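Weekly sync, protein design subgroup
Attendees: M.S., D.O., the rotation student, P.L. (late)

Item 1: inverse folding check
M.S. brought a backbone from last month's batch and wanted to see whether the design step gives back something sensible before we order anything. D.O. pointed out we never logged the input encoding, so this time it goes straight into the notes. Structure tokens as presented (247 positions):
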């Protein structure tokens, strides 16, 4: 195999790895943003439950105050009723007292409803607070892991790019230039292996004459279909192809 082909194969391996790492680095901030958004959504839900619980407590306090007002009114009406000059006036006071008592009963029923709602809200708030604390720790751990992974990926890319620069220097300038040109126009893949008489990238069958010339491995050739650099790996020796168990 031509030295330039061997170097190009290694170069493609490096470029493939750099592409994977670059994609991972780009994806990590999005992943962090998604988990932070989820955390924020749960936090807003908790704040809504807290607000509902506070409103429930305010309503109960107001209703308890309304009961006191009605109780005071009943006391005042009873005092006034004692001085009633006629049965008609007496019955009017009695009617007012009954109305206040009915109002107190209605308010007490509403307070009981609110107390039931309050228990559910209080349970939700406590559960959400506990879950949110665990989730916040998990998010912080994931963020730290993402930062460490990004730093490791960038360091690996630096190492790969340094090796890549060394390979480019070793290659014939025209071949290196052709590799770069093809790579940019073919989704980052500049070289492909001929396997079973086909280009392994575009899967097009190679012409017999073309394949014979390729097998000689004495020149740089490109696929007639996808225009990528093609190379041919001769079959291994018999001992390498036959499993040891059947030798």
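Designed sequence read out in the meeting:
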């Amino acid at each position: 195999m031509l030295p330039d082909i061997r170097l190009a194969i290694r170069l493609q391996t490096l470029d493939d790895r750099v592409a994977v790492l670059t994609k991972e680095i780009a994806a990590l901030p999005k992943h962090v943003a998604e988990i932070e958004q989820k955390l924020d959504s749960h936090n807003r839900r908790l704040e809504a439950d807290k607000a509902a619980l506070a409103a429930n407590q305010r309503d109960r306090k107001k209703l308890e105050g309304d009961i006191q007002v009605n109780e005071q009114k009943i006391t005042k009406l009873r005092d006034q009723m004692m001085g009633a000059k006629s049965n008609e006036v007496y019955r009017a006071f009695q009617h007012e007292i009954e109305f206040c008592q009915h109002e107190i009963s209605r308010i007490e029923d509403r307070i009981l409803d609110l107390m039931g709602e309050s228990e559910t809200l209080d349970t939700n708030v406590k559960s959400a607070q506990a879950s949110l604390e665990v989730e916040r720790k998990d998010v912080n751990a994931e963020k730290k892991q993402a930062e460490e992974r990004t730093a490791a990926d960038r360091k690996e890319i630096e190492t790969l790019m340094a090796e890549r620069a060394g390979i480019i220097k070793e290659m014939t300038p025209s071949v290196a230039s052709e590799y770069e040109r093809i790579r940019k126009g073919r989704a980052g893949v500049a070289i492909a292996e001929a396997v079973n008489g086909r280009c392994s990238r575009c899967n097009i069958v190679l012409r017999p004459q073309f394949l014979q010339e390729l097998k000689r491995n004495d020149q740089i050739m490109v696929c007639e279909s996808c225009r990528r650099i093609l190379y041919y790996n001769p079959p291994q020796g018999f001992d390498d192809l036959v499993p040891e168990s059947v030798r």
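Discussion: The beta strands are 191-195, 198-199, 221-222, 229-231. The two ends are 29 Å apart (CA to CA).
Action: P.L. to compare against the previous round before Friday.
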